[in-house]
Specification:
- By secondary structure, this protein is α+β, with helices and mostly antiparallel strands.
- The protein folds into two domains: about 1-70, Ubiquitin-like (UB roll) (Roll); about 85-155, Orthogonal Bundle (DNA polymerase, domain 1), CATH 1.10.150.
- The protein has six helices and five strands; from the N terminus they run ββαβββααααα.
- A hairpin with a 2-residue loop joins β1 (about 1-5) and β2 (about 5).
- α3 (about 90-100) packs across α6 (about 145-155).
Amino acid sequence: MSVNGQSQSHDVEPRTLLVHHIRENVGLTGTNIGCDTSSCGACTVHLDGQSVKSCTVLAVQAEGAAITTIEGLADEARAAGTSTGEQDWHPMQEAFQQCHALQCGYCTPGMVMAATSFLNENASPSEDEVREGLEGNLCRCTGYHNIVKAVLSAAGES
């Protein structure tokens, strides 16, 4: 598989979840483990461009796939010429920072990945559509208002 544009080849047990593979074998810890039951979305990554909860995918199922984690999102934006701000972040990361869309930050990587994928599917969403589009990702700090504001800002709808 390719993780953030880097080819990866590891022997893994067939029962290894993708989230554990990313954290333990690849060494990228930005993808959080929140529930292991697909309820929270903290482990959301892009698998071949689609948002997935990596606790629901076995690492062996991702063989040959292109995976993007939160650590690689800004690199994708730089390569596409869409990075923003002093930090050279992905526009969604910049919007989260500008709109104060994080509190403890635990859900943030998964929220950013889900929101980015959502905007790829719906470039001009309404507030209700953003709320519905992110309903599979939970923020335990209840920062939803600013998260929705950030997604709308990234979409140019603020």
